[in-house]
Amino acid sequence: MTEQGYAKQIRILHSLLALCMLTQIAIGELMDVPEVEDAPAVAGIHLIVPAYAHEGQKHPAGMPVEETLGFEVHEILGLTIAGLMLIRLMFAMTSLPGANWRELVPWASADGRKQLKHEIKVQMAGWKQGKLAPPEDGEAVARCVHGFILLAGLGMGVTGTVLYFGWSQTTPQTDLIELVAETHELLVGGLEALLAAHILAVIMHQRQGHNIIARIKPTA
Fold first, then answer.
1. Which of 20, 142, 160, 17 has the alpha carbon at shortest distance from 89?
2. 80, 85, 167, 194: which is deepest, by most CB within 10 A?
């Protein structure tokens, strides 16, 4: 392995995905979604909150919401992320340090589950005190989180691609497209939670002097 534990290709791709995903989430929450409304859009509280700008406006029933620059950027960025995810999947089939799929889904093997169980047991006391173990003592846990983030991102890419080709701006959506859209939003919520936990862990590691960023920064 490299000193950072990740090959340079993985570190560069990690930075690109992080930048694109965070930007995409921000745009997705603020953009209007072009579609024909079956009923006037009204503000409300939902488990997965729709785009705030769209939710805050009232559009007459039967009238389409016009496509905006935000939505166009969302589409282009979504396809970009899907492409980056495909590259990451190809890397997962290689022996590059930190790239192999077995390292991202340790729970899929008996040895991996054993390692996860051991690390969680060892680190539980520190977690209760708001402390994290050094990175070398929590590799399986950290890579498992990376794996879940990539799986969520892959799911977003697949559902987003379906919506890109199947979303209607002139007629109400079909039941299938509505289901895909709901799944897409659910994955967005899951990804937001995972990214928040991931960023919080990085901050905590840095505050404890673990210098975790040096392991993944692309310029190292």
1. 17
2. 85
One-letter amino acid of 183:
T
β-strand partners of 36:
64
Query: Which DSSP letter does residue 48 get?
Result: S
pLDDT (0 to 100) of residue 99: 79
State the Cα–Cα distance between residues 213 and 4, nearest whole angstrom.
9
18-69: pLDDT as tens digits: 899 889 888 888 887 777 655 544 433 343 344 444 444 444 545 555 667 8
Query: What is d(CA 146, CA 194) in angstroms, rounded to the nearest whole number?
Result: 9
What's the one-letter identity of residue 177? I
Tokens of 14: 């990690």
Residue 52 near residue 30, CB atoms below 8 Å: yes
Q: Which of 92, 105, 83, 101 is nearest to 157 (CA)?
A: 83
* Amino acid, single-letter form, for residue 16: L
Please report where in the chains the tokens 């729970």 appear, as a residue. Answer: 107
pLDDT at 64: 56
Q: Which residues contact 148 (CB under 8 A, 6 or more apart)?
A: 194
